[in-house]
Amino acid sequence: MKRLFISFFFLVNFVILFAQKDHINCVIFVDGKLPGLESLNVSVKWSDSIQVDLDYVIGEFQLSKEDKNLIESLDPNKELMMTVKYFEKSKTYMYTSKIDAGWLTYRYLIARITNLNKKKEKYYFGFSTPGPSNHFIKKEYNMLE
Fold first, then answer.
1. Is 141 part of any domain?
2. Does this model's pTM top 0.90?
């Protein structure tokens, strides 16, 4: 019985140790609205071989501690390519934008995607943080309405 208890104790600690995830506070708006959870896939890439897929839950990206440490170890001015795949009805839209690695280390990040012309796949992808932010455009939706 004692062996069973000890084995169970180590198994639980092992699972807890390796299942830990970290997060980056982020909210994504598409045309001024919060999309549903099942409608987004997000990744960041900074070379031909290094890409980190981010699990998006409204309000944060969830990622492994190793991936977060990898992002935090980058030069803050390193340019990353963020890709957001948005599934709406029977159509998939892909939005990409350059973002500095340091912007992912702020307390929060707000990604603002505004479709300017869906048929021509023209859009504006802006970011806001407590520090630097991209400018707002006239056609951008008010997120707080």
1. no
2. no
